[in-house]
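Re: [help] complex structure
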Amino acid sequence: MDSQSVAAQTVETGHIEHEHPPFLRHHFENVAQQREAATFGMWLFLLTEIMFFGGLFCAYLIFRNWYYPAFVAGSHSLHIWAGTLNTTLLIISSFTMAMAVHAAETRVRRSLMGWMIVTIILGCGFLCVKAYEWHDEWVEHHVPGLNFNPATLEHGTKAYPDDTLAPDMAQKTSVYFSLYFAMTGMHALHMIIGVSLLTILLIGAYKGKYVDGHVAPIENFGLYWHFVDIVWIFLFPLLYLISRHQ
Amino acid sequence: MEQQQEHHHHLHVPHPDMGPSEPTHHEEHIVTPKVYLIVGASLLVFTATTTAVSYVDLGEFNAVVALAIACIKMSLVVLFFMHVKYSSKLTRLTVACGFFTFLVLITMTMTDYISRAWGRW
Amino acid sequence: MSTIVSLPDQSTATLPKVSYLNKEYGLKSWLLTGDHKRIAVLYMISITFFFFIGGAMAALIRLELLTPTTDLLAADTYNKVFTAHGLIMVFLFLVPSVPATIGNFLIPIMVGAKDLAFPKINLLSWYLYIAAGIMMICVLVFGGVDTGWTFTTPLSTHYLNTNVVTAGLAVFVAGFSSIFTGLNFIVTIHRMRAPGMTWFRLPLFVWSHYAASILMVLGTPVLAITLVLVVLERTIGIGVFDPSKGGDPLLFQHLFWFYSHPAVYIMILPGMGVISEVISTFSRKRVFGYTAVAFSSVAIAVFGFFVWAHHMFIMGISNYSALVFSLLTMLVAVPSAIKIFNWSATLYKGSITFETPMLYAFGFLGLFTIGGLTGVFLGSLGMDIHLTETYFIVAHFHFVMVGGMLMAYLSGVHFWWPKITGRMYPEGVSKLAAVITFVGFILTFFPQFILGYLGMPRRYAAYPPEFQVLNVFSSAGASVLGVGYLLPLLYLTWSLKYGKIAGANPWQATGLEWQIQSPPLTENFAETPIVTHEAYDYEWLANKTRNEVQTVG
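Output below.
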């Protein structure tokens, strides 16, 4: 069973390459070179994103080891249903985005638009859940620098009655929440940018722009979207699943 | 319509004197929806697994298992959703460089933190 | 003195009728251009502007340090002045200097392409640079920032009420300008080389920029997130760097220097690329050990990621990790040394002439060697404890950055001036300026090694009176240096109208850029070149000029 299919247009693409489709920029020799350059460029941009988030993960690693009990308490205070739901939404949205790329490659405009719309909805859903969580943390006084008060974490919760912390370790939960807000905030910012870009691309797709062989923008946006999903794939266990068995 | 993909035949063989900027044609492989569906379902299964396992007491290994599952999920997304399995060597080298540099940041910073107070880490 | 300059007959020579400069007219055609050459010119004008602002800050520093007391500037103001000097010189001058000007102009031509891979991103890169520059000016206008260019915490997050946030954001924006330039170069070099232009036929200038671009793409984002965290700490009050909240100020330094050490290689590698081209041309000889120089460039980039904590030896990192970083620092010097050896070997038995670019290149060879060796001294833990945070450090980095990089930049500007503008600069006054710069530099910065060794701390407006004599030498040298930098500004501008017509290849150099007209066409090549010769192939050049009529655009 062959898991790949070569585009039916492969042979014809050779001919199309020698014409000049309107989306071929003049400094490229042919469409294939342009497409490869664009994908390579997007991967390089994703490398910068790896290093950008990398600094935050580095900070997380250090402080989790320094203040483990505080991190446990902080993690327990998050809603696991929200985290799991968000993870599910993002994974499905990665699937729908991959399907959108497939629709662009097979040049089916309605499919392309459909999958893009679903991806946007799933992305917005993620952001709504996040907004709810952040509101909840605000209400609980877990926002460092703005209204932080570790009182609710010092004495354990109904679900985790053993979560008591000494006063100085309770103060350190602000480090956990600092990283929580920095990391999920940065991630959410990338989601907002992603949803906005996808909306712009959707308008282009409506006009027929990406089903004429000019797959690169959809393909490369897909790479960005999947990357943002991967960041969340790591944020979820690191923030939500610390020692839940206690 | 599926055609048997032969990886050894390219549509034009680069002339020996020609620059290596000839396109590699890898990006023209189209991954089927079936693959995406299987990968997507696996990701959801792994998500459920990691959540469930976090409620089991494995001591130190909770973190290890969680990170391992996250790495597997990441690999699935990278290889299939992001097409790296079907991409050129250059793309794979690029991805590898990204991970390598990230690991350098983490590990070499850790040489300081780990050794600041031996045994009290 | 002999010269290899070969100009067309000035009585009949004219600039080419059509070039990238006159293809389109009007401000919009420049501000919305996708042409990498025009963007390079825009960058050149911008960085020159910021260079002189940074230079004015330097003048204030040296004026203040003429006397041991704080009589010209209050201590706080002095802090703001050296911070401005550092921020502007590092982020608005040195980092973009060669890549964004000469690199932008030449990389596509050197690989045989019509433009960079992403012209719009190239233009965006310039606009980001301008935005960063404007933000930096705002910082100055609104009272400055006094953290030092290194933004060390918790001083920057906790103890100051100056414009730390704006300055941090300005650097953040400048960082993205740099990232996009590097990204563009990497894709262009990998994917847009002309037929026959294999990796090992590329000029070493391209290799250097490739290595620097890798650093830009992988290192700069870490600086970006670090500055974001500083801004969040100052504005919202999160505490990742604040000990009173459980944070670690050293974490800031780890993340900051993870970029800022590779940054110094981002700054120097393109300059080294210039030196390879200039030394080869003015010795009429291929660069000795091409492969070694090419791989050394990449090695510098890779090893450069492993040594950052040598900026933190006294800051409280563990002794064991300090040992590791010290050892790695010794190793990173090796590829740079290989390059110096190879350039020297290129000179050996070459036909050397002393045009201005070569004078600057000689200056580079000597001054960068001294600067680099003092870096090795500093890499040794015992020495560093004594010398760090003194003027020894200041001298070290000025030797490599000013004696090295700035000289390389001036060398490159002079070398490719005829290609960019179509006109030659005046050779007599330019040689004079080069010599003045060299003398002024040594007078300014050599005493600072001694001052540092004797114990004068850096970043101090006031100092013990026994250090005054050396400080006066240094300030006197600075005024000479200032003249040396002002002269090119004047005569290069003059040459735009009155310089001799250069023709396509006034230096009789190899390289694709010298085979096209000066200034080049917008699309660089009338038709895609097919490359059959190696880099620095002077025999090929001799055959070509002997057998063919040289076509000028």
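The interface with chain C takes residues 25-29, 33, 36-37, 40-41, 44-45, 47-56, 58-59, 62-63, 66-67, 144-146, 171-172, 174-175, 178-179, 181-182, 186 of chain A (CB under 8 Å).
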